[in-house]
């Protein structure tokens, strides 16, 4: 039997739930004494942080639902009002609940007296980031769970202008503002007033985004590009951008080109996951394609596959694509005195590219919320297939503009009888071969991730893949701090261990610099060593 105190807690939530469907489901579980499901829904309030909200769509304080979203919107309203800010634009993807969560947010924000604008339909996250700047908004909210499983949804929060000495310019919130908003959310007294006074963003803003992506792009040689939106919202916007730039129209993976919140053809709707791009590569082979481009479901990330020297199709690693984009930008744009940037888990190769072209270089903690705060950014990327190639217009990762840029590079390579992988070899001959690899381990219980990291800290390895460990850093003890470990073996091998910020995964990022065959072999040895190490803690 459910204890009385817990029963009263559930009943109180039901009484204040604005959604009759989620309230009814909780009431049903209560009448059935289904404590298992109720405990999943009442396992603490879904935490609001620098990534906003992200979690399973389910009733109760631990899930994404109208009640939780409404409280969050009320907390954001209180924050904006306290800072004398008033203008908010809201966008959404096509996931389960996204339309309802946008509506809930609009009602709460409007009820607080703010000026609220809604994007006219489901659109990519970069369009929302663009709209914050283009419309001179104080805040932007994007309802999306990006590349998470179909069961999830989320809530990204952007700010415009300068706040507390930080130039946001249409980028995601960072600490300590996330904690300030979280505190306000926890103090919300329900019910919050509701309004219905909002405006729909005009098509000219979407056209402005398309034009900003297409500006200056030129296709040197016709090409056959295969594109998959991974059941997300990228298709129409990407096609519009390619058309505006007068590029070859991409062929679509029909099974994945329309939004579908169930993501039926992929286990995880993330182009990084094994098998996620199989349908696109299969179509490329059958159509003798030149390039495969994939977006994640909200189209802020971009993945690419191409044929290697042996004629086999291979997906480029996030670092490889970042290095190609960075090198090309360093050769084709005026970057002297501007800044190239990447994160601590990404390849160190971009620093060498920046040095060679006279640009500055900065390394940040993981996440575009950090990269986007760099002034005078020329190009920024993170190895998790996030690329910022148009920072003056979209101060965030943007899978659409990155797709057009890589298509432009590929067209120039086709014209001179080359390929993306041959171009990579040219870059390696200039700066040395940098092999990177990621090892991800998924956990059912997130607490196991912290325990594993603590075990490694308590018993740090002395050797890895036969190499002596020369440096072992607990990144939580440096400034700026983050949860994770950085291990070096001499000057050529670097390993970083950290939890994913968006999924229940422990990630190990490996970089080895050296000759191709020996570096590749060493990366595989390091992966095997860490698989055994993590298994010993389970």
Topology:
Elements: H1 4-16, H2 20-31, H3 35-41, E1 53-56, H4 66-82, E2 87-92, H5 98-111, E3 115-118, H6 125-134, E4 139-143, E5 152-159, E6 162-163, E7 166-167, E8 171-172, H7 177-186, E9 198-200, H8 203-214, E10 225-228, H9 235-244, E11 251-252, H10 278-286, E12 291-295, E13 302-307, E14 313-315, H11 318-332, E15 339-343, H12 349-357, E16 360-364, H13 368-371, E17 377-382, E18 386-388, H14 399-415, H15 420-431, E19 434-442, H16 447-458, E20 463-464, E21 467-468, E22 471-474, E23 485-489, E24 493-499, E25 505-513, H17 516-537
Parallel strand pairs: 2-3, 2-4, 3-9, 10-11, 10-12, 15-16, 15-17
Antiparallel strand pairs: 1-5, 4-5, 5-8, 6-7, 12-13, 13-14, 17-18, 19-25, 20-21, 22-23, 23-24, 24-25
Characterize the biggest β-sheet. 7 strands, mixed
CATH architecture of the largest domain: 3-Layer(aba) Sandwich
CATH class of the largest domain: Alpha Beta
CATH homologous superfamily (4th level) name of the largest domain: Alpha-D-Glucose-1,6-Bisphosphate, subunit A, domain 3
Q: Number of domains in the coordinates?
A: 3
Briefly note the structural class of the backbone.
alpha/beta
Number of strand elements: 25
- Please work out how many helical segments DSSP would assign: 17
Mean pLDDT: 95
User: What is the third-level CATH name, the topology of the largest domain?
Assistant: Alpha-D-Glucose-1,6-Bisphosphate, Chain A, domain 3
Quote the beta fraction: 15-25%
Portion of residues within helices? 25-40%
Pick out the low-confidence regions.
Answer: none
Distance between the termini: 33 Å
Measured on Cα atoms, how large is the radius of gyration?
23 Å
- Overall shape: it is globular
